[in-house]
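Q: What structure does this chain adopt?
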Amino acid sequence: MRKLIVMFLAGIFGFVAVASAQTPAQTPAQSKTATAPKTATTAKPGTTAVRAYDRALLRPALLKDKAPETFQVNFVTTRGEFTVTVTRAWAPIGADRFYNLVKHHFFDNASFFRVIPNFMAQLGVSAYPPVSAAWEKATIKDDPVTQSNKRGYVTFATAGQDTRTTQIFINFKDNSRLDRDGFAPFGKVDDQGMKVVDMLYDVYGDGPPQGSGPDQGQIAKQGKPYLDKGWPKLDSIKTATLVGPAGAATPAKPAAAPKPAPAAAKPQ
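A:
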């Protein structure tokens, strides 16, 4: 499993932090149709089977729909709700990929596995290993950078030129230094929604070797049980769904529970 790396300067001291896979990092994805998708199911003995993921996600090459010029995606998370407004003209290739992933519910049940304070929150490794395996090499070409990686902007992570697959990140602050490295934002979370994003659990920090967070390769291989066992406080996505054109966004609804106090020391 490859790991995406991006270097960023932090503070006036100029120390360097390494962002794993697509940057900040990257791995596979999934999807679900709008009408009656065929889905893989899982169930414990003696219980009713439940939908796990849309089987269309196992064939990335077929998920090529063109996104609307503007659309919105509502994320319902363990911290509350926020909406991403996508403008296709900003990064058409990335917007189309994001649209197809959301349409087929790739992000449902996935976790915010890499949350770095004062930098970004990263997601986009599937909760389901078969889906991750299917998207591992489903790369798309880079878009020209037309917007800056400022607070609230949403961007695909990358492992280098033309390596984007399914991982995305949300900027916590102005990270415009990423612009020159080819990270092209395609959407934005509004100020109200960022109040929810700001609450994402960030104490685990980066993954190995820089920090104590989860290993992206193992997330892809083992799925959500790996995260639930070793990093149970990570926030996750309940659903990510298309909600219509810009202007029809569902207001962000922060969860009532306060964010746990951060640990005294965090990975650099």
